[in-house]
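**User:** I keep going back and forth on a fold encoding question. It is easy to fool oneself when nobody else works the same problem. Could you pick a protein and write out its sequence and tokenised fold? Could you put it straight underneath, so I can go through it closely?

**Assistant:**
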Amino acid sequence: MKRLALLTAAATCTAVAAFAASEVLTPGAATVIEIEVAPHELAECRETLQQVASMPSVADDGTPLLFQSSDDLPQVRCVASSA
């Protein structure tokens, strides 16, 4: 009976570890946010995005992030509206 319980616990730990490893190794789908602007405002929008990209990364409460990785952040681009 102890052997069955030990094997069950080992199998459960292995399954949880495999699931956690697959979550870490699987790349997430990149999110792209498009900002629609009038065609004559497209250059200004792109310039503003470049200025924002050069700013340091901070958390929601304003504290600086300890790492400067933007891989998890969504991509933002300006698009001229057709209407």
The longest helix spans residues 2-25.
